[in-house]
Structure to design on (315 residues):
C-alpha cells in the first residue's frame, strides 16, 4: 500500500480479488444507470447541426422528457449494459499495469498516466462495437433524422421487440451496410479521445486529492477528499479531450470514415465553438460519474482488502 502524502493508495496486491470483482459489477451497473441520460443528451447535442434540435443540455433534457418520456432518456440502455465487461477489463488493466510500472518507477504520476492510457486502450477495443449500436439507438425518436439507420415501424411498436428487437434491427442494418468493420467505425477516434482522457484523469485525480489533503483539516475523511477530487479531474480531462469526442460521435453516428475531414467540416460549419458541443452535458455526466466511481471504487477497494490488512488501516 502506497502512502501518497496523507492519502493512502490501495494497490492491486492488497486486494481480495473475489470480493473486488463481485462488488465491482454492482458498482459499474450503478454508474451506468445514473449517468446514461446525460450520455444520451451529449450524443444528440454533438451530432446535431448547429442548434437545429436543441439549444443546450437542459433544453434537450426537457424536450426529450416531454416528447419521448423517461424511456426516451434510456434509449439503447439495454445494449449499453454490456459495457460492464469493458468496465471490469478497464479496472483490471489499470491495476495490473500500475503494479508492472511500479517495478521501474515509484512516481505516482507516471504509473497513473501509463496505466490509465493502457486501460482505456483495452476497454475501448471492447466498448466501441457496443457504443456504435447504442448510439444509433440513442438517436432514434427526435434525433432519428440525424442518423443513417432508423428503426422500422414494426420494431418500434411491438412490445416483444421493444428492447432487443430494436437492437437486432440496428445490428442487421449496420452489418448489411458496412459489414463487420461497421461495428468498429470511429475506433481510432475513440482511442484518440479516451486514451488521453484516461491518461489525464488519473494523474489529475491523485494531484487534486493530494492538494485537498494538504488544505483540509487532518480529521477530514479521505473519502470526502477523493469524492471532490474525482469531479475536478473529470472536468479537467473532459475539457481537454472534448473536441476529439465531438469528432468521434459524428464519425460513429453519421457513418463517416475520415477523422480529418469530419474535423475540417465541423470547423467550417460551426467554427471553433463547434468543438465545445456537448461539453456541459459531458461535464454534467462525468461529474456524478466521477463521484460515484471514486466513492464506489475506493470503497470497493477498502471492502476488498485482504483480511489481514483490514485492521491495520486508518481511513
Amino acid at each position: 500500500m502506497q502512502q501518497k502524502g496523507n492519502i493512502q493508495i490501495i494497490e492491486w496486491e492488497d486486494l481480495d480479488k473475489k470480493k473486488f470483482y463481485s462488488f465491482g459489477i454492482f458498482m459499474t451497473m450503478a454508474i451506468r444507470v445514473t449517468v446514461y441520460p446525460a450520455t444520451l443528451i451529449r450524443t444528440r447535442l454533438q451530432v446535431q447541426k448547429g442548434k437545429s434540435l436543441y439549444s443546450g443540455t437542459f433544453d434537450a433534457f426537457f424536450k426529450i422528457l416531454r416528447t419521448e418520456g423517461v424511456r426516451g432518456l434510456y434509449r439503447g440502455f439495454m445494449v449499453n449494459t454490456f459495457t460492464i465487461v469493458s468496465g471490469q477489463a478497464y479496472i483490471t488493466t489499470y491495476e495490473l499495469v500500475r503494479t508492472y510500472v511500479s517495478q521501474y518507477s515509484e512516481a505516482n504520476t507516471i504509473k497513473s498516466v501509463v496505466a490509465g492510457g493502457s486501460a482505456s486502450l483495452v476497454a475501448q477495443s471492447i466498448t466501441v462495437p457496443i457504443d456504435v449500436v447504442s448510439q444509433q439507438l440513442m438517436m432514434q425518436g427526435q434525433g432519428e433524422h440525424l442518423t443513417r439507420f432508423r428503426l422500422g415501424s414494426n420494431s418500434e411498436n411491438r412490445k416483444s421487440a421493444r428492447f432487443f428487437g430494436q437492437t437486432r434491427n440496428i445490428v442487421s442494418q449496420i452489418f448489411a451496410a458496412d459489414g463487420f468493420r461497421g461495428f468498429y467505425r470511429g475506433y481510432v477516434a475513440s482511442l484518440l479521445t479516451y486514451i488521453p482522457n484516461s491518461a489525464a484523469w488519473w494523474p489529475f485525480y491523485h494531484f487534486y486529492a493530494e492538494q485537498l489533503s494538504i488544505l483540509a483539516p487532518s480529521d477530514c475523511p479521505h473519502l470526502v477528499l477523493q469524492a471532490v477530487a474525482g469531479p475536478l479531474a473529470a472536468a479537467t480531462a473532459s475539457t481537454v479531450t472534448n473536441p476529439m469526442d465531438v469528432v468521434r460521435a459524428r464519425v460513429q453516428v453519421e457513418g463517416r470514415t475520415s477523422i480529418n475531414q469530419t474535423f475540417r467540416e465541423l470547423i467550417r460549419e460551426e467554427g471553433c465553438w463547434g468543438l465545445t458541443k456537448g461539453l456541459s452535458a459531458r461535464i454534467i455526466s462525468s461529474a456524478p460519474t466521477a463521484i460515484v466511481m471514486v466513492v464506489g471504487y475506493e470503497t470497493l477497494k477498502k471492502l476488498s482488502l485482504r483480511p489481514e490488512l483490514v485492521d491495520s488501516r486508518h481511513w
